[in-house]
Amino acid sequence: MSSYKYAENLEETVKKLSDFHSLEELHHQSCKGEVLPSGQQLRELISLCRSLIFPGFYGSPDVSDKNLLYHTGINTEKLFDLLVQQISAGLLFATNDPVLHNDPNQLEELAEQRAVEFISYLPEMRRVLSTDVTAMYNGDPAAQSKAEVILCYPAIRAICNYRIAHKLLTLGVPLIPRIITEMAHSETGIDIHPAATIGEYFAIDHGTGVVIGATSIIGNRVKLYQGVTLGARSFPLDEHNNPIKGIARHPIIEDDVIIYSNATILGRITIGKGAVIGGNIWVTENVAPGERLVQAKAKQ
Amino acid sequence: MSSYKYAENLEETVKKLSDFHSLEELHHQSCKGEVLPSGQQLRELISLCRSLIFPGFYGSPDVSDKNLLYHTGINTEKLFDLLVQQISAGLLFATNDPVLHNDPNQLEELAEQRAVEFISYLPEMRRVLSTDVTAMYNGDPAAQSKAEVILCYPAIRAICNYRIAHKLLTLGVPLIPRIITEMAHSETGIDIHPAATIGEYFAIDHGTGVVIGATSIIGNRVKLYQGVTLGARSFPLDEHNNPIKGIARHPIIEDDVIIYSNATILGRITIGKGAVIGGNIWVTENVAPGERLVQAKAKQ
Amino acid sequence: MSSYKYAENLEETVKKLSDFHSLEELHHQSCKGEVLPSGQQLRELISLCRSLIFPGFYGSPDVSDKNLLYHTGINTEKLFDLLVQQISAGLLFATNDPVLHNDPNQLEELAEQRAVEFISYLPEMRRVLSTDVTAMYNGDPAAQSKAEVILCYPAIRAICNYRIAHKLLTLGVPLIPRIITEMAHSETGIDIHPAATIGEYFAIDHGTGVVIGATSIIGNRVKLYQGVTLGARSFPLDEHNNPIKGIARHPIIEDDVIIYSNATILGRITIGKGAVIGGNIWVTENVAPGERLVQAKAKQ
Amino acid sequence: MSSYKYAENLEETVKKLSDFHSLEELHHQSCKGEVLPSGQQLRELISLCRSLIFPGFYGSPDVSDKNLLYHTGINTEKLFDLLVQQISAGLLFATNDPVLHNDPNQLEELAEQRAVEFISYLPEMRRVLSTDVTAMYNGDPAAQSKAEVILCYPAIRAICNYRIAHKLLTLGVPLIPRIITEMAHSETGIDIHPAATIGEYFAIDHGTGVVIGATSIIGNRVKLYQGVTLGARSFPLDEHNNPIKGIARHPIIEDDVIIYSNATILGRITIGKGAVIGGNIWVTENVAPGERLVQAKAKQ
Amino acid sequence: MSSYKYAENLEETVKKLSDFHSLEELHHQSCKGEVLPSGQQLRELISLCRSLIFPGFYGSPDVSDKNLLYHTGINTEKLFDLLVQQISAGLLFATNDPVLHNDPNQLEELAEQRAVEFISYLPEMRRVLSTDVTAMYNGDPAAQSKAEVILCYPAIRAICNYRIAHKLLTLGVPLIPRIITEMAHSETGIDIHPAATIGEYFAIDHGTGVVIGATSIIGNRVKLYQGVTLGARSFPLDEHNNPIKGIARHPIIEDDVIIYSNATILGRITIGKGAVIGGNIWVTENVAPGERLVQAKAKQ
Amino acid sequence: MSSYKYAENLEETVKKLSDFHSLEELHHQSCKGEVLPSGQQLRELISLCRSLIFPGFYGSPDVSDKNLLYHTGINTEKLFDLLVQQISAGLLFATNDPVLHNDPNQLEELAEQRAVEFISYLPEMRRVLSTDVTAMYNGDPAAQSKAEVILCYPAIRAICNYRIAHKLLTLGVPLIPRIITEMAHSETGIDIHPAATIGEYFAIDHGTGVVIGATSIIGNRVKLYQGVTLGARSFPLDEHNNPIKGIARHPIIEDDVIIYSNATILGRITIGKGAVIGGNIWVTENVAPGERLVQAKAKQ
């Protein structure tokens, strides 16, 4: 095929699409040649975290007590490098701070500090994720072993990405956390905002369609089924009729709550400790501790 | 490993599976050696469209006012070539027209015309997509910037694929549009049929589980949450008890409607301007403009 | 970038992460160097099955009556090799049987037998899948051709993976079946447990969010829409308060049932022959044959 | 890094390099979008020929009497496709024939005929190459087996490429043969012009630096060592002082000749049957059958 | 396979090989994490130069007067980026200058200046290389077209790499030029030191084994055949018995000289204008202009 | 393109090429499904050896005293695995020993022992190669640093491959050593038989065309220039007129000898300590220690 015959027809479109002034906010101009957040690097970063946390299940399968030190050393080094690059990229992308844009040494210094803090947190992250694995193994009669949970359950991958992203967010890294949770969203259908707060022994079964909003607070030993939404109900508007950003607007789910499939919990309400929310219902008011709520009876 | 020992056991299965007469409609015979629709090429085609529409966010990150013309020129040329190949492939796959199958010059001529028409539409497609970006940024308190919407929000990718596929469909290209929207479906969980009609400032939040049927008509400034279905209720059957194809059977959603998560809207009904449909409900009758509909109260 | 400056800071984390005793069940030690289940190989295995079952649609597009024998022969051989490797990997991973771990000849013998049995079943699997294609083509007014169904419909890919995984499960292969259905889950949002029992002419429309639990039994000519759950309601607990594994706890769906989008059917109940379950409802009790059930009316 | 700061400096060079008129013969304009000869495709083409001729040594190692038919069938089909593409590319590149440039059906017809003729010759090519293998195995005390010769000896690869290229040249295919022998030249340091005529049982030892010119004629059972040149001495010049093309100007080497390392044989002379040429000498006159020629004695 | 059983045996070797003090000059410590010269990037850099100089022959084949500007713009930008990276890498690798090692802005500034100077020279480099193409086409009766020379002749690739490397060397870039000529050496068997000085209309036929030393000076319209050495005869030694570096020690070849295959020209001698040196001879003294020198007669 | 039209024409050739009986020694039948020697794995094996011997120059550039242990540990483990696989492959390919073919545990045991012995030799191999680097740096006025020698000089790569291959040969590994030296031959034009014996401080300058035969013995501090042959003169023939294998037939080069470019040294002769052999000469008789030999004078 050849575009030769239509070169002149195409010329005009090329000109229109190249009109920089028409682009406004639809492009990103990288006039200093900074590295941008890279999907491929972030996927590798996630892979490295997973293989450091669950060695032998992710990353090289040939891990033993004889060589774990070597593998951990190499993977930590690679992770550090990727973190420094992507944290830098996120900082440059999301801020206009002239110091960061003009002084590469300061930018690198900042990114390296964040990277070290993140890596230092990995042993604790492993401990918390192990409670999630336990919760999902204990809570699912179909699970044959914890190995099956770690290897096959999409919720583990989604929660792992969330815990990584949440830590980066608390370290002040912009944009990157959101990309990381959206990767899990695409892979598993589970959409957890990195700003949400989630306790230990957290379980999601099946998971497709789960949405956990940015200001949600989830206690310990909570279990969600597929299609559950922890969302916002309405937003206070500013003078331009746009939602005001940064207001707590998602539910608080206390310890030991179970929410069945496709239930929708909306607004800054509290689902009390030990409550059980049945499937396919729409909840916009507080639910008392221990309460059990189910859908109105269907009709024939 | 080796199949040598079991060669004779396998032989019989090979023969059964190679029995061409048993295949009927389960294979595609390509007796002229035509190029087939290719998932890999279509993924590249989508990437090129995205980088032409949102330069710097997709494709090469090193885009500036100094070099945008070069990038646009090269990408337009590549896109033209891919379009010609895939449009040809779609035409050959889906039609029995002997002219297209036997006269490569006529086929190429037709495919090139469609490709040029598609490319000429890209500046307008950029304008419409920019309204979708604006709607999603304004409507989500969690969005930090339009850049975050373009880079991270799955709905942008799904709507972008839909707008590309819809244009190709209106140009008479078979099969390819459906493959393109199914790619977005797999990536985002959002399933928009390429034949649906969708206005400007269209927003989908989170998105997993959204289904928009082939004859749906959606106005301007409509917002859908995850799990919303715009589906068909029942199909008139033909004499063989199969659904009659081509009848309008999906809803009409007028301007400024909001539909919350997991709501199911079925049949050729109309949701009037400015109506609000609560989550988890099943709607099979018209809803008046401005009406607000929510689920029957749950019971304890 | 360089981790040099922070080498000592990182050293401590490396040591903590390399502490083998802290890993307990969070790692997999492969002290004999066995091959592990491999996502990449299983993806290739699925591709080979698809191209053997639907030649010309999957795999090489240049299939004709002249060369189908060659393609089938080569693909069967490759499939055999992959099956032997992955069945061996699954057996070693999931069992502690010392014979399999220490006698490579016995392990290979067992894996080869299973592989041959699986391959011998492929012609029958093709027949059953062709009924699924027919059901989806006949049941969807938007489908232009069976080719479109085979090429574009995610449900075909999910059901194909399920039927492969179910056969492997009945042959006693551990772990691998679950990985195979989770691949389809990630790709399509449809989560079918490999242990479920599903009849012929099975159709799923759109599909995202569908969950079919391990002990579900589905008859012939059943149709599910997106977001339908066939789940468990409650689990008998053992003395440690954990669910008892292996008890029938999912629904029985008899022949000719239709279940609309986002309906949740929970527990070992029976949905009788020809029943129609409306969308967004929560069903925990038997439904009589032919009954039609819809949601309680919404309120304004 | 970024080219932004120097954009204007680079602009001028871009303009100079884009001045089409300055390019004259230094570019290739492909105004019809024809496929060009492709190094990657030709490498694959050579691999396919090698695996058809020496199955099990090249290509899939899992070849047995049970599956050779399948492998041969598939590889022949792939080879046919590549040949048709590359023969077409060579014809378009090297000729100005308007029929070939404007009638794709005629071009394809011609290319397909040549491809079939080439493939039909492969069994005979296998027979001739087997004589070369035998000659190299018998003539080298260091060779442990014919398998070692086929797998390791660069001369086999160079002669194999030559025999493929020579056949294509005699079928009237332009350019492609030369690219094929230059691939072997780069890989082995052995430079055989595709137009040379070479008999059976041909052996080259080590091979680096061997040059065999276009009009050379080599008999049966000839053996060359590394660095041997069969070259031209002087060329009759035309009125512009350029060499006249197409004149026989390289040596005739009769049966059973041995030429030792770094000997240079120049001009249309004849080295008679059974002659032995010592290393490092310069031969520009006929050598009688059976004669032995060595360098003048060195001095201290 | 598994290294588990031999872990302790291997442990000792790992320790020996990791003993940093034993490494002395055999390793390169990159304590600042600088980018190193990269073979892969340099291969891409060469590809970009070739496609800028000979558009349509190298790089994208779809070059026409309609799109040459776009291709040139994009390739120039990519080349600039690669040059800046690799020039920086070469400077850091080869110098101990603390300014370059500690001030990334100064290093980048220097590398960018050199990159711009190099790119500005490309139009002149194209002109000179076109004289080499002409010389090789006119001088070889086997050449069918200049296109064949550009596409197939290894000498063009070797001379192109030399001219690129020589320019970088004169711009003060260390190490990189040598890597670039060694790439051509490996690909073509032609070893030209980047410091050599070579005039226009330079031709090498076949080329394998040609060696051109660092202080060689070659005039215009010189032609070399395969295996020709322009080498050094003896080196003045310093007090440690090592050769003194930097002394002119290779031949001067004046205009219009022809040197036949495998001739060895050693030392700082002069081969006068228009001289002809026969093959396989060893020349260590001046040769007068126009003289013709051939090997002593062989003996039987 | 399609082979459909010519399917019957091709059918006959497919049958001829698939006739197993006609293949005799031209194929390799792998009836047990053994792994074969793999070019790709051997290239990776060589890369690992190079990065263990010259860390920072080959393999990861980010090597420092902080992380060398990790890199060495991981690379040693990978090398062990590759060695076990390729040694097994070589043993199966080259021997008919039924024990090795039928008892996978014995084969693995043998391969693992050889792999451990090889790896244990690496520290000594590093020491010897460091003498070669020193010899080449000291002997070449053009060398700027030892780093340049290690990174750029083809002879280092060729000698490195030779020393690896020679060690494997002395450990009784068949076939693999020859493949390894042929890889270096293709890359550098230097052809060293793995069975040759070569001392320390060995230098080759430029190298293209150097041939060192299987029974050559080379002392310490020897230097060869490009195109030097250490070959065999004539072979005693057996009763079938084929060369008798295994007889010493190549030269002995004593310490401190220099041999200039394109010299050919043939037969089991001895070049005495400190002798200097001029270029382009043919030597078939002993040369006394300290002697200097040059070509007979050229004539005009």
UniProtKB/TrEMBL annotation, chains A, B, C, D, E, F:
Q: What is this protein called?
A: Serine acetyltransferase
In terms of domain of life, where is this protein from?
A: Bacteria
Which residues lie in coiled coils? none
Q: Known PANTHER family for this protein?
A: SERINE ACETYLTRANSFERASE
A molecular-function term among this protein's GO annotations: acyltransferase activity
Q: Name one GO biological process term.
A: amino acid biosynthetic process
| The entry's keywords | Acyltransferase, Amino-acid biosynthesis, Transferase
**First and last residue of the signal peptide:** none
